[in-house]
Amino acid sequence: MIDSKKRGALILALRRAIVSEFNVEDWREFGYLSGQSDYIQRHDRLLHSLHWQDPDYGDCVLQALERFTREGWDVVDQLINHPKLTSHLLNEIPDLSIFVRRDIQSVKTEAPASLSSGDVVLLALNDAERLMHISGPVSAVDRLHTALHGYFRSLCADAGLSMADEASLTALFKALRTAHPMLKNLGSYDNDLVRVLNGFANAIDAINSLRNNGSIAHPSEDLLGEPEAHLAVNATRTIFNYIRAKVGH
């Protein structure tokens, strides 16, 4: 974690970089990837002030950054490693290089203007494949987790399921499994399929723990081994493919 004395300088550097580089679609994509989509979309001024180039946009960005820092290091880490922001930040704070993933320049994601949450997961899956070839599967665990979290939150919102802002990946999946119209009644084999889905729920809970404790999402010297990281990546892929096939998007 960055020294607390440097946190203020980092926040201000992030604000300058975001004001300079981010557009509306960058914010929306980042929201899905970080699990902050609801906050970003519901902020009463952030996207509006950016669109109209209002003078209070910088203050809105600062409000968002202050919230993200309260959420934990993960969201800040994603901003530090965002392709549009990294070079700006390193120019101002060279010490941040220890937090920049070495593969960040090797993995490019060209996002279409209208990006659905499912598309974000597909992009993450594609990036995971490249990351596994570039630097091993460990780097892919965090990328997939954040994308899957945003996807599940979007599905809950589309289905009218009210979820707390801090709802975990596991809680979102449980809500979908029990209340989404395409998942709560699975036909003649409902009992057996529910057992399978319960197994998925346990896998998601484990992936959540792996991501928090054993991936590059948080500074740690005890990272996942490659076979275990492969397992987490493949489990995430299986869960996503099934849910997307059932709900149709």
From TrEMBL:
Domain spans labelled Abortive infection protein-like C-terminal: 175-243
Species classification: Bacteria, Pseudomonadati, Pseudomonadota, Betaproteobacteria, Burkholderiales
Domain AbiJ N-terminal intervals: 4-86
Organism of origin: Rugamonas fusca
Domain of life, per lineage: Bacteria
Name of the protein described by the UniProt record: Abortive infection family protein
